[in-house]
Amino acid sequence: MRHFPYSCLLLPLLAVLLTACSGDDGKTGGPPPAPVHVRPVARADVPRLLHVVGNVKASATVGVKPRVTGEIQEIHFREGQDVREGDPLIGIDPRPFEAALREKRGLLAKSQAQLSKANDDMRRYGKLVGGGYVSREAYEQTATEAAALKATVQSDKAAVESAALDLSYCTVTAPISGRVGALNVDKGNMVKTTDDTPVVTIDTLSPIYVNFSVPEAHLPVILERMRQGKVSIRATPTGGTVESGLLTLVDNTVDTRTGTIRLRGTFENSDRRLWPGQFVEVELPLGVARQALTVPSRAVQFGREESYVYLVGKDDRAVYRKVKVLFEHQGVSVVEGELAEGDRVVVDGQVRLAPGLAVQVLE
């Protein structure tokens, strides 16, 4: 009796199983088409509005420091109060400076009296030296004394002026108009001219500045707009209302580290809606892009080195296209790249896509 090897029986069985697993229709296996939503690439006139984050800054800030050393006797303002230039802020004990002024005035009076006598002596000796009653040397001595006393009088006058100036500094006045902050030194404390901490800080809130930076690529357009006339900008604080101002400064240097240029807007801020230190959203209009190539902003994906979109080709497969976003406006991105008007760009479902992958366009 002959025996057949088991391999001869297993090979046909495996062939049958493979045929059954593959199905009767003979189609090849693979991932199902990825469902996506698409929108057409369009051309449109789009306002070129640059949106950046800015920081509010007082148009002038002064830290008030004493110009004489002494004890604070009076406070003439309330913290958070608006003051005008020249308004008194604090009073320093004036008594030591009043005494110094009286002393300097006394010395001046003494030197003036001595000068008057020296001038009389010089005139009298001048008459006597001509008749030979006094020597030429004695006359010259009186003239020298008169000249020296004249210089002393000038010096004493300067000392009186300096003492009077120090006395006036006992009343510290506001150097600018604005809003005072918190008082850093209380009444009764000694203040010195060498103190680093100001007694109080004054900020000018109207007008007020908004500083912000934009990429240097926008600089030519901004400079051209400013040559044509005033450029309006808008700033919106978090939870606040839109404020309108003017672009008043383009810095003279591009920051080589960040590739940005610093700009400044000036706002009247009469209602005090902008406050120093606030972060605001700045909107800078740069004209209108005519018949620009546009795609929905959610269609643009950002990789490590470039931005891109996925198109749906004629064979319903995903096509990768590199794009450059020029700017955005109300959910629409103006782009440059290998796109054409009417191309179907994917706006939802990009996470499952890869170049050449089959897609299913959903309504």
Written description of the protein model:
Residues 61-202 form the Multidrug resistance protein MdtA-like barrel-sandwich hybrid domain. Keywords: Cell inner membrane, Cell membrane, Membrane, Signal, Transport. One of its GO terms (cellular component) is efflux pump complex. With 363 residues, the chain is α+β, with helices and mostly antiparallel strands. It folds into 4 domains: 34-47 and 290-361, conserved putative lor/sdh protein from methanococcus maripaludis s2 fold (Beta Barrel); 51-59 and 205-287, Beta Barrel (Elongation Factor Tu (Ef-tu), domain 3), CATH 2.40.30.170; 70-91 and 172-197, RNA polymerase II/Efflux pump adaptor protein, barrel-sandwich hybrid domain (OB fold (Dihydrolipoamide Acetyltransferase, E2P)), CATH 2.40.50.100; 94-169, Helix Hairpins (Orthogonal Bundle), CATH 1.10.287.470. Helix content is 27%, strand content 40%. The chain is built from 4 helices and 19 strands. The protein has helices spanning 6-22, 95-131, 136-168, 219-228, and strands spanning 34-40, 42-64, 70-75, 82-83, 88-92, 171-173, 178-180, 190-191, 200-215, 232-237, 243-255, 260-267, 279-296, 301-302, 307-312, 318-329, 332-337, 344-348, 359-361. The protein has a 6-stranded antiparallel β-barrel. Strand 11 and strand 12 (260-267) form a beta hairpin. Helix 2 (95-131) runs antiparallel to helix 3 (136-168). The protein is elongated and about 135 Å long.
